[in-house]
Write a structure and sequence with these properties.
Elements: E1 2-5, H1 17-35, H2 39-58, E2 62-67, E3 74-83, E4 86-93, H3 96-100, H4 103-117, E5 123-125, H5 133-136
Parallel strand pairs: 4-5
Antiparallel strand pairs: 1-2, 2-3, 3-4
Helix pairs in contact: 1-2
Length: 137
């Protein structure tokens, strides 16, 4: 896991094809699971992915990048923003293999742990979710 700050006026550290691919895979998997695999679900997922990718590369904060150790391919990333006394995270992981590596769980645990250790933080916002999975936490 590599932490990379997003600096104003500089290219975002996740402005790459590998990160875009990750967001597209994430959205296609999410919407296909919700609505079934279809051309319509794919087109909707692609449109959603483009919007989310543009949004995440234009926001402040930092990313936590997860790469496959044997191929160096991006398998997921967490985008984190701190504002006031709140830390917020949003996550993208590329495929079912990345999901099986518990990228999401690791990044949530890491974000919450860092928030607990920081006296300036009162709230952790776990961001958008395609399900109600956060209730289980």
């Amino acid at each position: 896991v590599t932490a990379k700050p997003i600096r104003g006026g500089a290219r975002s550290p996740h402005s790459s094809y590998g990160h875009f691919r990750c967001v597209v895979y994430h959205e296609v998997r999410l919407l296909s699971n919700m609505y079934g695999a279809s051309t319509n679900a794919f087109v909707n997922a692609l449109a959603e992915a483009i919007g989310r990718y543009q949004g995440t590369t234009r926001m402040a904060g930092s990313i936590r990048e997860y790469r496959d150790t044997s191929t160096d391919k991006v398998i997921g990333f967490a985008h984190e923003v701190t504002k006031g006394r709140t830390m917020r995270g949003q996550w993208f992981y590329c495929d079912d293999d990345a999901a099986k590596r518990y990228v999401w769980f690791h990044s949530v645990r890491d974000l919450v742990q860092r928030a607990v250790e920081d006296d300036r933080i009162d709230v952790v916002d776990l961001g958008p979710s395609g399900s109600d999975a956060f209730t289980e936490l």
